[in-house]
Automatic annotation (TrEMBL), chains A, B:
This is SnoaL-like protein. Residues 11-104 form the SnoaL-like domain. The lineage of its organism: Bacteria, Bacillati, Actinomycetota, Actinomycetes, Propionibacteriales. Coiled coil: none annotated. InterPro entries: NTF2-like_dom_sf (IPR032710), SnoaL-like (IPR037401). Pfam families: SnoaL_2 (PF12680). It comes from the Bacteria.
Length: 136, 136
C-alpha cells in the first residue's frame, strides 16, 4: 500500500517534470502499463511509451499551475490551470498508484456553460474564475 | 485543523444525507456561511439557508452514486455518477472543512466532447463510461 506522503511527492513530481518537459524523469514516475483515460472523449492510452509520446507531442506552448493536490493513501486528486496561447482551461486529474509509481490517470476538462434557469433567486453570477484556481 | 478521517466521515455523510433528501441532517454538515461555487457557470451560492434551498429545489428525480472519496486533512475530492431521468452526468466535487463542518464546496460537471485530431495513433476510442464510475 502506498502511503499518502509518498503519493503526494510522486504527484507533485509528475506535475513538475511535466511543466519542465523533463520527459525522462516524467516517464520514470508511471508504470510500464500505465492507463490514461479521458472519459469525456472516450479516449484511453495504455503503456508508458504511448503516454510519453502523447505528452511530448501535445501541441502548443502550454503552461500549467497546480491549484489543488489532495492525497489519500495510494490515490490522489489534483486540479490545475492550464493555458495554451489565449485559451485558459481547468484540468481535473485523478491518480492511482501501485507501489511508488502512477498506474492510472483520469483526466477531466470541464468547460463553461450557461446556467440553467430557475435558481436566479439563490445565486450570485459572474464569479467564473473565482475558484481561486490561480491561487493554490 | 480537521483530520483526514473526520473529513472523510463528514463528506460521506454529506452524500448520504443528500441522496436520502434528509435535508435537516444535510444542512447540519455545512457552516452557516458555506460557499458553493460552480466555476463552469460562474454561479456562487452563499449561506446554509440558500444552499439548502438550492438542493431542496433541484429539479428532477435525481440519483447519485459516489465513485471516489479522497480525503486529506481538511480537504477532500469526490466524484459521483449523477442520473436524472435518462441523463447521466459525472459530478466532480471539492470540499474544504472548517472544524467539523464543510465551509466550501466547488462543483464541476464535465461534458462529453469530440476528441481533437492528431493523436489517433496513440489512443483507443470508445471507452467512455469505463472510468469505472459505476464501480466505486
Amino acid at each position: 500500500m502506498t502511503g499518502t506522503e509518498q503519493t503526494r511527492a510522486v504527484v507533485r513530481l509528475y506535475f513538475e517534470t511535466m511543466s519542465e518537459r523533463e520527459w525522462d524523469d516524467f516517464g520514470a514516475l508511471v508504470t510500464e502499463d500505465v492507463v490514461y483515460e479521458m472519459p469525456q472523449t472516450g479516449e484511453r492510452i495504455t503503456g508508458r511509451e504511448k503516454y510519453l509520446a502523447f505528452n511530448r507531442e501535445y501541441p502548443g506552448d502550454w503552461r500549467l499551475t497546480v491549484t489543488r493536490l489532495i492525497a489519500d493513501g495510494a490515490t490522489a486528486a489534483a486540479s490545475m490551470n492550464f493555458t495554451v496561447g489565449d485559451e485558459e482551461l481547468v484540468g481535473l486529474v485523478y491518480f492511482e498508484l501501485r507501489g511508488e509509481l502512477i498506474a492510472r490517470i483520469t483526466d477531466f476538462w470541464p468547460e463553461p456553460y450557461v446556467p440553467p434557469a430557475g435558481r436566479e433567486h439563490l445565486v450570485e453570477l459572474g464569479v467564473t474564475g473565482l475558484d481561486r484556481l490561480s491561487l493554490p
